[in-house]
Amino acid sequence: MLKDLIIYIAKSLVDEPEKVEVEEIAGERTVVYELKVGKDDIGKVIGKAGKTAKAIRTIVTAASMKIGKRAVLEILEPS
Q1: Helix residue ranges, H only, the chain
Q2: Which of 43, 59, 60, 62 holds its CA 20 to 30 A away from the CA of 69?
């Protein structure tokens, strides 16, 4: 559910949606989502002064309360 939400949001922000990848790492109490986008799109998901990334993280945190687990979104630099 959250993975699909993150993918949807990220794909709507970037120029190369086919390069959006989200890996879900589930723990007992926490789920970590690692978001990767194309090299030229990292700035679009981070935003000015990190405001876009903060907004995405806020949405993920709020949505995670529905599943009863803490969710953490990591935005990784493209390799």
Answers
A1: 2-13, 42-46, 51-67
A2: 43
